[in-house]
């Protein structure tokens, strides 16, 4: 992630901009004003599309890829990390690139729909490649294509919301999307468990859900002809495409601080979630295999808690016209849950802490997404690019946090033990810092 401060600062965005009655339905807001209120049909199509894409996109991460790796390289589980890492890099690079291309696309189908169509087609082909892969290299190529295609679609669904949703709807749509993001992986894994033994169905059935959802979205969500829209003055060139991955914190301070707050939160979250199974085994003085049942219980309870946090925070933040308080509340609740887990060996208290943590994750993530749309720079011309850059605040810490975590695990440890208490306390500190950064530094949104 690179920042540049070559551009002059601009005025902060208004807290409560007026709705422009002349803005085209579902189109780009004119004169920098908010778009009109989106119809319920659009909201539910966004939610359905998010569910479908998460089914196609997350199920391989949660289950199918591990099954395929165990078939191709049964004694080399580390290959799963190589494959997922390569795919993660592809997703990071693709989302802002295709987001910017979509910002500048002028077609009868509009700006986003051509990329929804292309991404869906490539995403299905990628799943077929993975299902039939004869080697780890081919599996890796398939996963890179899958990450680039489905990941770009997710980023452009957020850009579509930036195009169409006024501030008064962003929290509830983020909350509803948060619910299906919790449900889709669980549904995908349950479905995949019934398909084990048939690799093609194992990958394609969740993918079909994504195809159906995106087909309905493309067919039913009207996007105006974009051929008459003015292009930005800067022509596309190699240097301008390189700048796709940069922005000016000085010119866009609220977006930058919100980005950084999310970055800190996800570092702490990744410290916690990456080592949950090992933490539980340490606390229970058991093997990893022996805590599988407890992990499943925590996962089920976490889905419910995360959904409640997302929907509650999202809807209330719209109703009360407050974002930052809910972002901070999510960070505080998550931190409290993690501290509780770190300081006890009691299973009931550990479960309580885990449930509190997932509630906080749901609230923080939903409301922070709505806040990101509130402060998104250049929404009329560069929403696709900036939603891709916002995604970096999640993908980058997910890549680096597991590399940093062993430093804390090793502090004061001996004889093969790991200092999970310190790691979890550090995780709580990072997440709380993320919430405080948003509350104290973002100025244009309450």
Can you describe what's shown?
With 446 residues, the protein is mostly helical. The protein is 72% helix and 1% strand. It has a two-stranded parallel ribbon with strand order 1-2. The longest helix has 33 residues.
Number of domains: 2
Number of helices: 14
Beta-strand fraction estimate: under 5%
- The CATH superfamily of the largest domain is MFS general substrate transporter like domains
CATH class of the largest domain reads Mainly Alpha
Summarize the biggest pleated sheet.
2 strands, parallel
Output mean pLDDT. 85
Any idea what the radius of gyration is?
22 Å
Shape: globular
Q: What share of residues is helical?
A: over 70%
Strand order of the largest sheet: 1-2
User: Within the CATH hierarchy, at the fold level, what is the topology of the largest domain?
Assistant: Growth Hormone, Chain: A
Distance between the termini: 27 Å
The secondary-structure class comes to mainly alpha
The CATH level-2 architecture of the largest domain is identified as Up-down Bundle
Number of strands: 2
Helix and strand succession? EHHHHHHHEHHHHHHH
């Amino acid at each position: 992630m690179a920042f540049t401060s070559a551009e002059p600062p601009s005025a902060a965005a208004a807290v409560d901009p007026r709705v422009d009655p002349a803005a085209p339905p579902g189109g780009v807001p004119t004169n920098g004003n908010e778009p009109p209120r989106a119809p319920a049909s659009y909201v539910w199509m966004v939610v359905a599309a998010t569910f479908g894409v998460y089914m196609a996109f997350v199920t391989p991460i949660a289950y199918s890829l591990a099954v395929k790796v165990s078939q191709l390289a049964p004694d080399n589980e580390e290959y799963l990390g190589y494959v997922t890492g390569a795919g993660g890099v592809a997703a990071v690079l693709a989302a802002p690139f295709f987001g910017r291309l979509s910002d500048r696309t002028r077609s009868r189908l509009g700006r986003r729909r051509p990329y929804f169509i292309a991404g869906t087609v490539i995403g299905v082909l990628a799943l077929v490649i993975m299902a039939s892969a004869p080697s780890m290299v081919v599996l890796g190529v398939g996963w890179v294509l899958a990450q680039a295609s489905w990941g770009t679609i997710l980023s452009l669904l957020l850009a579509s919301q930036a195009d169409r949703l006024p501030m008064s709807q962003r929290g509830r749509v983020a909350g509803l999307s948060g619910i299906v993001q919790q449900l889709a992986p669980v549904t995908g894994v349950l479905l995949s468990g019934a398909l084990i033994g048939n690799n093609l169905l194992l990958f394609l059935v969740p993918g079909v859900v994504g195809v159906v959802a995106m087909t309905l979205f493309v067919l039913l969500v009207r996007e105006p002809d974009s051929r008459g829209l003015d292009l930005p003055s800067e022509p596309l060139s190699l240097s301008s495409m390189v700048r796709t991955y940069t922005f000016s914190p000085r010119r866009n301070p609220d977006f930058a601080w919100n980005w950084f707050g999310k970055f800190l939160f996800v570092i702490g979250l990744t410290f916690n979630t990456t080592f949950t199974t090992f933490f539980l085994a340490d606390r229970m003085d058991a093997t990893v295999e022996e805590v599988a049942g407890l992990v499943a219980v925590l996962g089920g309870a976490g889905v419910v808690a995360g959904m409640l946090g997302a929907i509650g925070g999202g809807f209330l933040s719209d109703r009360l016209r407050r974002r930052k308080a809910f972002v901070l509340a999510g960070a505080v609740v998550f931190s409290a849950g993690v501290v509780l887990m770190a300081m006890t060996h009691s299973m009931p208290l550990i479960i309580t802490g885990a449930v509190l943590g997932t509630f906080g994750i749901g609230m923080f993530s939903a409301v922070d997404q709505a806040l990101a749309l509130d402060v998104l720079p250049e929404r009329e011309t560069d929403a696709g690019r900036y939603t891709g850059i916002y995604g970096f605040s999640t993908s980058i810490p997910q890549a680096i946090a597991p590399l940093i975590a062993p430093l804390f695990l090793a502090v004061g440890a001996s004889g093969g033990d790991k200092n999970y208490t310190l790691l979890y306390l550090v995780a709580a500190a990072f997440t709380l810092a993320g919430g405080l950064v948003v509350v104290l530094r973002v100025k244009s949104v309450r």
